[in-house]
Design goal:
The complex is a heterodimer of chains A (257) and B (249). Chain A is α+β, with helices and mostly antiparallel strands. Chain A has nine helices and nine strands.
Chain lengths: 257, 249
């Protein structure tokens, strides 16, 4: 009896300690649960767990599996015979600023154990998207010096656009913008103020969609700033559409440069 | 209209019964400003020009808030984290408990000397690193904390009862005497907007200036803890060898 007691106590204490720390962390970042974030953005959750904490829970099922017994078993099974590690899908939609807005956080991972090495394949669609009233000029905006681990994903297909200048040394030093229209950086430069301190920035425009695109790792750091990010997207969309920019008193005509 | 009259606020009376109307929400995310009569319940939307004034000031106040958070938030969070030793030292305390439990069960043998030395040594060194880091962070990050300036505001009088309105950066200010909301004039709104924008720019400049200091402080703390762990564990192991050596370690 006493032989078993100590190892059991050690295991129980270890598990208890981990649960305590996890609970502590989840309490500290309770405001970053998906449901709470969606509400603050003026969106309604249409799919996924509203209690999923964007700051403490990874979007990657392979990482998320390690925090539950069921996930651990899934991970073990996949590492033996291959297959899916799981899928995380969170979606919220709404009309803040009078615009159609969608927060889509989707990530799926498959594991192929292979003979010599295991290969994990990840599919993801992680973005905060504003649907404008009409097609917007395409562009791609990133940080010039990306933080380690927070690199943006390279744009795959589609035409390559030339790099353009903001005409503002501070903005040009911080961002790289690729666009077909050389006047576009000047039009949206004034809207980028709220992104000034973010460690990860990737804004793209395609068709009538203007998106802040994330990688699975970048979701954690970006989730703290979804409100200013949405505000910036709304401002960019308004500036490109010639509507009243949120936060501007002047008439729309006066803002279009 | 005289220049002074152009700066006066206006009330928003209900078209149906004349009672003051109140904004349904104070959200910067709204696309229109819905007003509800507090007497008869009639709902109306503010006209476009007035709504733009209200929404612009809401958005500018939020932008200012985000900029102030970016200016002082990271330094404050870092300082608060380092002021609490518990979460940083709890793993070592837990390790000591495990080793002590093993010793209670099997007696004080040479086998527990090394783990005990490593855990205690690393724990003590980490505590020392925490004290040094805390002092360094207080010196470096303390001066970076800045008190946010007060919101701009203009003393105005209620258009319904003439009572003095509280200075506020909001577009709709409620009279403390007759509870009627007063909509700020276009001229005053422009002034408020300009002052809010200036405060936002100042906070962003402060945040940009503070960022390199924060990075340097974070690097210092990370290295201090890494070094403390390695040195403490090595010294602890050496000390354990000296103490438990005679027991046949």
């Amino acid at each position: 009896m006493s032989t078993l007691m100590l190892p059991l106590l050690i295991v129980a204490a270890t598990v208890g300690y981990m649960v305590f720390m996890k609970k502590n962390l989840n309490q500290k970042y309770a405001h970053l649960r998906f449901g709470e974030v969606a509400t603050r953005l003026g969106l309604q959750v249409v799919e996924g767990d509203p209690d999923h904490n964007l700051a403490t829970q990874s979007m990657q099922p392979g990482v998320q599996n390690l925090s539950s017994a069921r996930g651990f078993l899934t991970q073990m099974a996949a590492s033996q015979v291959g297959g899916t590690l799981g899928e995380t899908k969170l979606q919220a939609v709404g009309q803040p600023y009078g615009l159609q807005v969608e927060l889509m956080l989707y990530c799926r991972q498959d594991l192929d154990p292979g003979l010599r090495r295991a290969t994990t394949t990840t599919w993801y669609d992680l973005r905060l998207t504003v649907h404008a009233g009409r097609a917007l000029p395409p562009f791609d905006l990133r940080l010039r010096q990306e933080a380690m681990g927070l690199e943006t994903r390279a744009r795959g297909d589609g035409p390559a656009w030339p790099q353009q200048s903001f005409g503002d040394p501070a903005l040009s030093q911080r961002y790289v913008i690729e666009a077909a229209d050389p006047g576009l950086p000047l039009a949206i430069g004034g809207a980028l103020g709220a992104l000034a301190q973010l460690p990860y920035v990737h804004v793209t425009s395609s068709g009538n969609q203007l998106s802040f695109v994330m990688t699975p790792v970048a979701v954690m750091s970006s989730s703290f700033s979804f409100e200013p990010i949405l505000h910036t997207l709304a401002q960019i969309a308004a500036a490109l559409e010639g509507r009243a920019v949120p936060g501007a008193l002047a008439s729309p005509q006066a803002q279009v440069r | 209209m005289s220049a002074a009259a152009g700066r006066e606020p206006t009330n928003v009376p209900c078209r149906r019964c004349g009672a003051p109307m109140r904004a349904q929400s104070d959200r910067h995310l709204d696309a229109a400003v819905a007003m509800v009569c507090e007497h008869c319940g009639a709902a109306e939307e503010l006209p476009a020009e007035e709504a733009r004034r209200v929404l612009a000031l809401r958005a500018l106040r939020m932008e200012r808030q985000w900029a102030e958070d970016a200016a002082s938030g990271p330094a404050l969070t870092y300082l608060r984290t380092m002021e609490r030793a518990g979460p940083l030292l709890l793993p070592y305390a837990f390790g000591v408990v495990l080793v002590a439990a093993t010793a209670l069960r099997g007696g004080l043998t040479s086998a527990i000397g090394l783990p005990l030395g490593v855990v205690v040594g690393a724990g003590l060194a980490s505590f020392l690193a925490l004290r040094v880091s805390r002092r360094r962070l207080r010196a470096v990050l303390g001066p970076l904390l800045r008190a946010a300036p007060g919101l701009p505001g203009r003393a105005q009088r209620c258009r319904r009862c003439g009572g003095e309105l509280p200075a506020s950066a909001a577009a709709l200010v409620e009279c403390p005497f007759c509870q009627a909301p007063n909509l700020v004039s276009g001229a005053v709104a422009a002034q408020l907007a300009s002052e809010l924008e200036a405060q936002t720019r100042s906070a962003r400049a402060h945040a940009a200036a503070a960022a390199p200091h924060l990075d340097a402080a974070a690097r210092f703390v990370r290295r201090a803890f890494q070094l403390a762990f390695l040195a403490g564990a090595a010294l602890g192991a050496g000390a354990a060898r000296l103490v438990f050596g005679p027991l046949g370690m």
